[in-house]
Amino acid sequence: MPMKIGSNDFKDRVEEGINDSFMRKAVAGAQERMGSRRQDAADQLGNWEDWRSHGEEIRQHVLEHLDYYLKELSDNIASRGGHVFFAQTPAEANEYIKNVVESKGAKKVVKSKSMVTEEINLNSYLEEAGCEVTETDLGEYILQVDDHDPPSHIVVPALHKNKEQIRDVFTEKLGYQKTEKPEELAAHARAVLRQKFLEADIGITGCNFAVAETGSFCLVTNEGNADLVTALPKTQITVMGMERIVPTFVELEVLVSLLTRSAVGQKLTSYITVLTGPREQNEADGPEEFHLVIVDNGRSNILGSEFQSILQCIRCGACINACPVYRHIGGHSYGSIYSGPIGAVLTPLLGGYEENKELPYASTLCGACTEVCPVKIPLHGLLLKHREQIVEKEGKAPISEKLAMKAFGLGAASPFLYKLGTKMAPTAMNPFVSGNTISKGPGPLKAWTEIREFPAPHKERFRDWFKNREKDGDA
Amino acid sequence: MKVALFATCLVDLFQSNVGKATVELLEHLGCEVEFPESQVCCGQPAYNSGYLKESKEAMKRMIETFLDAEYIVSPSGSCIAMFREYPHIFKGDPEWEPKAIKVAEKSFELTEFIVDVLKVEDVGAAFDASVTYHTSCHMTRLLGVRKAPMVLLKNVKGLRFTELPGKEQCCGFGGTFSVKMAQISEQMVDEKVCHIEETEAEYLIGADAGCLMNIGGRIQRKGKPIKVLHIAEILNSR
Amino acid sequence: MTGSITNREKFLNQISSQLGRQPITGKVERPVWRFQPQKEVLKNASQDELLTILKDQCLNIHTSLYITDKNNLSAVLKNEIEAYGGSVLAGKDNRFKEWGLDFLLNSEIEFEEWDYTQGRENILRAERAGIGLVVSELTLAESGTIVLYADKDKGRMVSFLPENLIALIPKSSLVPRMTQAAEQMRSEHLKGNQVSSCVQFITGPSNSADIELNLVVGVHGPVRATYIVINDL
C-alpha cells in the first residue's frame, strides 16, 4: 500500500514515537499554538457553528451528487482546453502522468504539496522513469532532501524535525554553510528552488478544491510555491482526490474560509489561487497545456457506506492538532501519510483493516476531533463504527475479548447475573488486594496495574448500602 | 421530586462513597431518591469496543429499568452521555426507539440536574482546601455540561479553586483504551498528573469515576500527595 | 481548442452505483442552503469602516499601508519605490496614466511593462525586477487581500517574482470579504464573461512556518509588501 510508512508493527512505531522527545515537545507546542489560533479564528466570526453547519451541508450535497459535479467539472475543463483523466487506481493515475511527462520529453518536475500524490506514490514512479522530481513546499522539500523522510502532519509535514536536524541535512546534501536560523535555512531553500522552478518542464500540483461550474480549481498556500509551479513550467498536471469539489465559486469561498481558519488560524492564507484551464492565447506565463487527473483509489467504496461523511474532509488538520493521542505518539506512529483522527478513520478505509487494525483503537473517543472539525465529520463516531466492523464483520477481534464481551452481554442483560457478578468481585479479587488497592492485577487488569493502582472492590457494594439503609429506616 | 439514581458500575463496585454522597446530597436538596435494583451497566464498555449486539442487551435492560422514572440522575457524565446516545442506537427500531427517547430526555448528570432542573447554584457545602478540577471529555463534549460543576464549586465555602492547565485534554482513560493502548494511556495520564501538580492543589476533583480511577491510580502509583474526590463528595461536605 | 476526457463513464457509473442510484442525467440545482453565515460578516459596513478594518489587518500580515489621494499618489508611490530600490515591473494598465503616474511612464525610474509579445522574456524581467507593481481589482477588508485577474497584459508573475510587492488599491475596490469576490466572479461567469485563467488572492508577503513553526516572511514570493490605498471616491 503506497500510503504506508514506517515499520510494520504498530506498537513498535508507537514506542519509537513516545521515545522521540524532540518530536513530542514540538507536537505539543504546535498543538497548543495551532489549536489556540484556530480557536481565535473561529471565535472572531461569532457564529462558528453556523459556518460549520454550512460547510457540512455543502460537502454532503456534493457527495450525494458527486458524479454530476465531476461530469460538469470535466466538461468545463475540456471546453477551456484542459485534458481530464479519470483514474480509478493509483497505477492508472501514475501511468497517465508518466505518459504525459514522456510525451513532452520532460526530465524536470516541480511539485507543490499534494497528499493524493503521496497516496499514489507518484514521486517514486516518476523518479524510476528517470525524472528529477522536486517538492517545493518548504516542509516537503526538507523531507525530500532528507532521503524522503515521510510527512508526520498533513499541514506541517516536517513538524517532527528540529532546525538543527534540518541544518545538518542541508549541509550534508546541499552544501549549505550557514546556521540553523529558520530565516537562513528558508533563504537557502528559496534560492535553490527558484532555479528549479525556472528550469522545470512540468509542474504538478494537488487540488484544494475544484469548482464544477467553471472548470476551475483552487490552490491554498502561504509560501506561494503553487503559484510558481503553475506559472512557469510549460505543462501542468493537477491531481485531485475525486471528492474535492464544490458546485460554484460561492461554495468555494466558504470552504476556503473554513480551511484557512481551521488549518492555521488565518482569515485567508497569503496565496489563494484560482486557476482555469491552460494559459489563454497571448498570455506569457501559465501552462500551455493543462491536465487534471481525478483519482478514486478506494474513495468510491466509501460512498454509500456508513463512512461516507469522511469524504467531507477538507484536509485542514484541525483534528490532528486537537488529538491527545497524536500529541504523544506523533504522526509516524499511524503508519500512514494520513495521521491523527483523520488518518485513523481514513487509512483503514483506503488501505484495509488487515494492516491497520489498531488504528481505530488508538483513540479514547474523547471527541476533541469531532468538536473542531470544520465540516462536522463525526470522527470519533466513525472510529467506533470501525470497531464495530472489526468485531462483527471482519471477526478480527481477539478471542479473549470476544469471550469477555459475550459474558458482558449475558451478564449485563440479566440483572440477576450482573448482581451476582458484582457481588463476587471482592472475593474474586481478594488474592490481589493489598490495603485498598490492587498493584498487580490478573488478566486484563495486568495492563492497567502496570501503570496505575486499581481500587479493590468495596466489600459493601453501593447497592447493598442503599438496601440496608432502607431497611434501617434511615431514608 | 422523585429521582431514580443510576449509580453506574464503577460507583456500585469501587466507589460506594460517591454513591452515598450523591444520595445524601440529593436528599438534602429535597429529592426523594430511589435506586432501581434491576439496573445493570449502561453498555458503554461493550459499545465503545465495537460490540454493538452485546451492548444492546444491557441498554434494553436499562431502558426498561428507568422507563417510568420521573428523573434519572447519575454521578457520571460519561454514563449519562451513553443514555443520551440510546435514541441514535435504536433509531428505526419501532419498539425500542420511542422508549430510548423517553429515557434519554429525562436523564441528567448530577451537577447538570442540580443547576438546570433544581435551579440550585449553592448547595450549602463547605470544603476548606485548595482544589483543581478535571473536566471529563464525555461530560463536556458529548453532553455539553461545562458550566454546572463550575457554578456549584464556586459556591462551596472555603474552597480555593485553581484552574487545571489543559483541563479539556483527555486523561487517557477511554475505557478499554487504558489497557489496550496502555503505553499511550500512560503518557496521557502522566501529562495530566503533571498539570495537576502544577496547580499545587491538595485535591483533584472530577465528575466521572472512570477518569478519577485512572488519574487517581496513577497519582497513587507515583506516590504523589494529591487526594482525589468526586464532585458529589465535595458538594456533600458541610 | 477543446481538451480530452478519458475514462469518465466507467468512473462516474461506479460512483452512482455506490450511491445506490442511476447516473444523474438532468440538471442538479444547488439547494437553498440552510446556513449562509458568510453574508453576515461586515454587512452594511461603509467604505470608511472597511478601510479601518483593512488598516488593522495589515498589521497582522506584515504589510505596510499608506492612504493617499490622487493628487499625492505620485509622491507616495515614488517614495516607496525609492525605499525598496531596484527596477519596477508592472502590468500594462491605463490607470497609471489616469492617476497621473507620469514619472513611471516618463522613465524617470527604471520601469518596465509586461509585454506579452516578448513571451518568456517577461519572466526573466520579473526575476530581475526589484519591485512588482499591481493594481488590486477587488480588495478584501477582512483578510487584507488583494485580488488580481491575470490576462495577456497582466502576467501572473508580476506580483510574484520581484522581491517587493506594491499594490495600488482604489478605495472603491474595498469589499467586506472573499464572499463578495466569489459572488462577483460567479455573476460575471453567468453573464457569459469567461473567468480569468488565473485569479490570485494575495494577502501580504509570502511566508512559511514549516521550520519549528517559526514564521519566516518571504519564502518563494515577495519578501516585503506595501499597499497604497487611493481615495477615489
Report on this model:
The complex is a heterotrimer of chains A (475), B (238) and C (233). Chain A is an alpha/beta fold. Chain A folds into two domains: 10-300, NagB/RpiA/CoA transferase-like (Rossmann fold), CATH 3.40.50.10420; 399-471, no CATH class. Chain A contains 22 helices and 13 strands. Chain A has helices at 10-18, 21-45, 48-64, 66-79, 90-103, 115-119, 122-128, 138-145, 163-174, 182-199, 225-231, 249-264, 299-302, 318-322, 324-329, 340-351, 368-372, 379-393, 399-413, 415-429, 445-449, 462-471; strands spanning 83-87, 108-111, 132-135, 202-205, 209-211, 216-221, 235-241, 245-246, 271-276, 289-295, 433-434, 437-438, 454-455. Chain A is elongated. Chain B has 238 residues and is an alpha/beta fold. Chain B has a four-stranded parallel β-sheet with strand order 2-1-3-4, with helices on both faces. In chain B, strands 6-5-7-8 form a four-stranded parallel β-sheet. The longest helix of chain B has 18 residues, at 182-199. Chain B starts with a strand and ends with a helix. Chain C has 233 residues and is α/β, with parallel strands linked by helices. Chains A and C meet through helix 2, helix 3, helix 4, strand 1 and helix 8 of A and strand 1, helix 1, helix 6, helix 7 and strand 10 of C.
Task: Give the secondary structure arrangement, pairings included.
The complex is a heterotrimer of chains A (475), B (238) and C (233).
Chain A: H1 10-18, H2 21-45, H3 48-64, H4 66-79, E1 83-87, H5 90-103, E2 108-111, H6 115-119, H7 122-128, E3 132-135, H8 138-145, H9 163-174, H10 182-199, E4 202-205, E5 209-211, E6 216-221, H11 225-231, E7 235-241, E8 245-246, H12 249-264, E9 271-276, E10 289-295, H13 299-302, H14 318-322, H15 324-329, H16 340-351, H17 368-372, H18 379-393, H19 399-413, H20 415-429, E11 433-434, E12 437-438, H21 445-449, E13 454-455, H22 462-471
Parallel strand pairs in A: 1-10, 2-3, 2-4, 4-7, 5-8, 7-10
Antiparallel strand pairs in A: 5-6, 6-9, 11-12, 12-13
Chain B: E1 2-5, H1 9-13, H2 16-28, E2 32-34, H3 44-48, H4 52-66, E3 71-74, H5 77-89, H6 96-105, E4 107-109, H7 110-117, E5 130-133, H8 137-142, H9 147-154, E6 160-161, H10 177-180, H11 182-199, E7 203-206, H12 209-221, E8 227-230, H13 231-235
Parallel strand pairs in B: 1-2, 1-3, 3-4, 5-6, 5-7, 7-8
Helix pairs in contact in B: 4-6, 5-6, 7-9, 11-12
Chain C: E1 5-6, H1 8-18, H2 47-60, E2 63-69, H3 70-84, E3 88-90, H4 95-98, H5 102-105, E4 111-113, H6 121-128, E5 131-135, E6 138-140, E7 145-149, E8 164-170, E9 174-175, H7 178-190, E10 198-202, E11 207-211, E12 214-217, E13 224-231
